[in-house]
Write a structure and sequence with these properties.
Helix content of chain A: 25-40%
Order of helices and strands of chain A: EEEHEEHEHHHEHEHEE
Number of strands of chain A: 10
Oligomer: heterodimer
Strand order of the largest sheet of chain B: 2-3-1-4
Number of helices of chain A: 7
Strand content of chain A: 25-35%
Distance between the termini of chain B: 23 Å
Strand order of the largest sheet of chain A: 6-7-8-3-9-10
Chain lengths: 234, 282
């Protein structure tokens, strides 16, 4: 489903971000991506949604190859992905409802289907009663839920989350994480970059640690213990 | 497409100041172009009027038979550059002199002024050589004593016309280029103001064409509004000049419509360039 084959990525100014990464994420899997700041986590996620292309090697996501995908192929691929960021990336001048509906409108979803679908998604993330609020009127955790609802509009096969709880307090973090677990339980794969070792320890999901652009630990590899059993994921 | 229209309208509503600024910028750059166009149109008109008044006068020798004069008139009238040929008899010449020079009325006594053929040339002759060709034809008749047409004056007229045309082309192109650059930059500001929206559109899988559409519509409308405003400014300027300085003509309906359409095209082009540049980066 997601396959990195010997992928390297170098930026002209900052140099190597990833070096020789080989990784496979299976359908419906939940994967934590961890490692220190600047290790290459965000670059790896950007390669998944083709925001960046590898300097060497190949990334294959849901049938699209980094070697051959055109801009319109990328647009098509992103309609099957959900992407969530630490800073939520909501449109501040639109209501919660409009923010979620926007994602459906830009891909040309039939107008009649938008309202019921957005209503269902907002209920699912627990914000059914806040459809008419503006993002600034919501807490951080609620804003991230709106972002997750937006990411789910196209029933993605994978949700890519870059530090989704990075700006949230403990309580909100637990709520958002539980939401991601529920989404995963319903069949959507989740690739989540995080610094939060507590979350990793409390669950038994696969953990991939990156350092200096290389995979230094993968809990799924034979011989490695489950992350919950390890003292630290670092 | 309806979303694209809605987004374009929303852009106007959400950033009214920025939108007003772009429209006024477009309006003023097109106004400069319009004023220049007004000068060009009036200059051409003035030159045309001068050309229309321009005539070649051939003095007919005394005692020439009316038959040979009318045969010559027919031949000369058939030359493509000649608009009309008139015969002014001695009596008519005297009559005219008396009318035009009233204070010397009594001096004119008897038919001492020669008869003449007056050739009115068609406006828009290519140049002095064509005028000269007509003059040479007229000189060729044996009964023609002398031909007068203000040679020096003709040379000056055509020089002015050529210089005006060249200056018109260069200045017109320069103004149009400046307009496109200014409009491109104002639309670029609008694009940058909505870069967050564009990045979200791209993240959820909008195609480039879809991202581009609202901006193109916005640019088109801004161009039309700016063009219409520029037309209004130019018309007001024309009114002021016409009433206080000199009589001027305004653009005809077709040219005015073309001006607004030009504004729309410039708006569209400016948008396409700005969005295209932005999309290549994201």
């Amino acid at each position: 489903m997601i396959r990195f084959s010997n992928v390297s990525k170098a930026y002209p100014r900052t140099g190597t971000a990833l070096a020789g990464v080989t990784l496979h994420v299976a359908k419906g899997e939940f994967v934590f991506l961890t490692g220190p700041s600047g290790a290459g986590k965000s670059t790896l996620l950007k390669l998944i949604y083709f925001e960046e292309r590898p300097s060497e090697g190949e990334v294959r996501v849901g049938g699209a190859s980094s070697k051959s995908a055109s801009r319109s192929d990328v647009a098509r691929l992103r309609r099957k992905l959900g992407i969530v960021f630490q800073d939520f990336r909501l449109l501040d001048d639109r209501t919660v409802f409009a923010n979620v509906a926007f994602a459906l409108e830009v891909i040309g979803a039939p107008a009649a289907s938008i309202t019921p679908k957005v209503g269902r998604l907002l209920d699912r993330v627990g914000l059914g009663s806040k459809a008419n609020a503006f993002p600034r009127e919501l807490s951080g955790g609620e804003q991230q839920r709106v972002a997750i609802a937006r990411a789910l509009v196209n029933d993605p096969f994978v949700l890519v989350a870059d530090e989704p709880t990075g700006n949230l307090d403990d309580r909100a973090t637990r709520g958002v994480f539980q939401l991601l677990r529920d989404i995963n339980a319903a069949g959507t794969a989740v690739v989540m970059a995080t610094h939060n070792l507590e979350l990793i320890r409390r669950s038994d999901y696969r953990t991939v640690e990156i350092n200096r652009g290389q995979v230094v630990f993968d809990s799924r590899e034979p011989g490695e213990g489950a992350p919950a059993a390890r003292g630290s994921a670092r | 497409m309806s979303l694209a229209f809605r987004e374009a309208l929303t852009a106007f509503r959400r950033a009214p100041l920025l939108s007003a600024l772009s429209v006024t910028t477009i309006a003023f750059s097109l106004f400069a172009l319009g004023l220049f166009g007004l000068v060009a149109v009036n200059m051409r008109q003035a030159l045309r009027q001068i050309e229309e008044r321009f005539e070649v006068r051939a003095f007919v020798a005394e005692g020439t038979s009316i038959d040979s004069v009318s045969a010559a008139m027919k031949e000369l009238g058939a030359i493509p550059g000649v608009a009309a040929v008139t015969y002014v008899s001695q009596a008519q010449a005297l009559e005219r002199a008396r009318r035009e020079l009233g204070e010397f009325r009594d001096v004119f006594d008897g038919e001492f002024l020669p008869a003449s053929l007056e050739l009115r040339l068609r406006p828009g002759l290519q140049g002095q050589s064509e005028v000269k060709a007509v003059v040479d034809r007229v000189r060729g008749y044996r009964f023609v004593d002398d031909v007068r047409y203000g040679e020096e004056w003709v040379a000056k007229l055509y020089r002015v016309r050529d210089v005006a045309a060249a200056a018109g082309l260069v200045l017109g192109l320069a103004f149009a280029a400046v307009s496109i650059i200014i409009i491109g930059s104002t639309i670029r500001m609008a694009v940058l103001a909505r870069s967050r929206e564009i990045s979200i559109m791209r993240l959820v899988g909008a195609t480039d064409a879809f991202v581009r559409a609202p901006f193109l519509i916005e640019g088109f409308f801004k161009g039309v509004l700016g063009g219409a405003l520029a037309l209004l400014f130019t018309w007001l300027a024309h009114q002021v000049i016409d009433r206080t300085l000199i009589e001027t003509t305004f653009f005809d309906a077709r040219t005015a419509a073309l001006g607004v359409l030009g504004g729309a095209l410039i708006g569209l082009l400016g948008s396409a360039l700005s969005v295209g540049r932005h999309l290549r980066k994201v």
